[in-house]
Amino acid sequence: MRKKIYIAYTGGTIGMRPSTRGYVPAPGFLSETLAGMPEFNRPEMPEFTINEYANLIDSSDMSPNDWQQMADDIAEHYDDYDGFIILHGTDTMAYTSSALSFMLQGLSKPVIVTGSQIPLAELRSDGQENLLNALYIAANYPIPEVTLFFNNKLMRGNRARKLDANGFDAFESPNYPILIDAGIDIKVTNQHRKVDTNAQLVIKNIQAQPIGLVSLYPGISADVIKNTLLQPVKALILLSYGVGNAPQSAALLEQLKRARDSQVVVLNCTQCTHGKVDMHGYANGQTLLDVGVVSGADMTPEAALAKLHYLLSQPLSYDDIRAHLQANISGELSI
Ligand SMILES: NC(=O)C[C@H](N)C(=O)O
């Protein structure tokens, strides 16, 4: 029997059409375009249903409320389908796939987020290949995780990053092996979660949380951190240098101490694309540990932000949040 896949269409370039102000999402346009592509209805392909969202958006408009809408949508249709695809813009796709990896716990079915760099209706679009492969993989190589499919690679959703604004190979998984390499042969790399048929889906709700994010740069003033902490925020992500280093500025460290004293979690992620934070390596890193900064290890900034939204939405103490940040919840960090 053909598998049944549910497609939640949220917007993004894949379904856009040109306007006088650049590409915009257009209601009905994606389904209309797909109807003219017979390969989607070949007998090897699964059956699919498309739920086009009422408000199709460029993914730069995504917010945690939209993540919640997607999680609820999947929960509502979970028992009726064999797998789920989320069609999404590429700009914030890695944030959404990270957030959903924390929100959808106990998955026994695949959830694949995908989209394209050129609209499906245009010549040379990558949308057809991305969606066709995502559907085929959801039906035939079901991995019970939130994943991101792009340019023949299936990646863990909370490990993926958009690293190329213009190319078709826009996403990478810098700190974790890809899960499926969909070349001439489809190679499953065995780095994924295994199906547990007894797993029960549990939705963890997220409410938008006030989170600050500061990228360090030579000459940064402590006032930048001070002003970010005034917003107010419940957590601050510090994008530090290398293995987690920051300037030894007394004024800057004072601000981080004040954050700790007012129970604002400070999470240290590296500006480097590859590798992980280890604040024990240098004295400059050690001073951050001394003022209570938590290591983000090899988490991507996207996963770190989503994880903070997720943890701050739970009834957890400051110490609990610090502990959970350093623990592996959904495969987002290597310990
Ligand atoms: N390629 C894309 O989908 C980019 C678009 N701006 C979006 O994220 O919705």
From TrEMBL:
CDD domains: L-asparaginase_I
Gene3D superfamilies reported for this sequence: 3.40.50.40, L-asparaginase, N-terminal domain
PROSITE patterns associated with the record: ASN_GLN_ASE_1 (PS00144), ASN_GLN_ASE_2 (PS00917), ASN_GLN_ASE_3 (PS51732)
UniProt-listed Pfam families: Asparaginase, Asparaginase_C
Annotated ranges, domain Asparaginase/glutaminase C-terminal: 212-323
EC number in record: 3.5.1.1
Active site: T13, T90
Keywords, sorted A to Z: Hydrolase
UniProt xrefs under InterPro entries: AsnA_fam (IPR006033), Asp/glu_Ase-like_sf (IPR036152), Asparaginase/glutaminase-like (IPR006034), Asparaginase/glutaminase_AS1 (IPR020827), Asparaginase/glutaminase_AS2 (IPR027475), Asparaginase_C (IPR040919), L-asparaginase_C (IPR027473), L-asparaginase_I (IPR041725)
Domain L-asparaginase N-terminal: residue ranges: 4-191
Family: Belongs to the asparaginase 1 family.
Protein name (Swiss-Prot/TrEMBL): asparaginase
Protein encoded by which gene: ansA
